[in-house]
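Suppose you are handed a protein chain with no further information: no name, no annotation, nothing but its sequence. What can you learn? This example shows the usual starting point.
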Amino acid sequence: MVVLDLTMTAAERTMIFDTICYGNSVVWNGVEYDKTGTYVETLVSKVTGCDSIVTFVLNVKDAIRTTQYANICYNDTLEFGTLMISKSGEYQETFVTSEGCDSIVTLHATVLPDLRQTINATIFEGEQYNDNGFIGLTIGGTYTLPLTSQDGCDSTVTLVLKVIDPTEVALDNLKATDLTLVPNPVKVGESAYITFNSQFSILNS
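A reasonable first move is to predict its three-dimensional structure. Written in structure tokens, the prediction is:
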């Protein structure tokens, strides 16, 4: 009589965890995976010949997507990844995170307007021009004043100043917008005069 001493051995169970970035894939047990999920395979142990149940848990990280906004000064450029931006518009770049995954950034860029300004002004001899950031100017000429806007952009104000001798006011120095008729309108037989910038009478009638 033969007595068989049989021992049952439980199947060995193993769990494997892995994480990959979106757009990548991993090969496990000869099969390529690129989606988050739990995958179970039954293998045969080379040592015991028994079943070995392996559970493979895969986590696929989504690409990080962010949106940013930036202002660019007139005539300046902004470095954005591999791009050099000098025009308003929407731009997209892909960066790599510390974990090696993609980070997709969408940038909305706005180029600010040209802040350069030219001002033409006229004063009489003996007067000073004190306006638009200029102080104590008495000599005719062209002056520039560099400024910085609230956005941090460079701004230049150019002043073209003309100085007139009030005793030699000529009609070719005047503009219609500089003249004021007092009174206006004038009644027949009424005395009237014209002022230049409300400062100097050039005509009586």
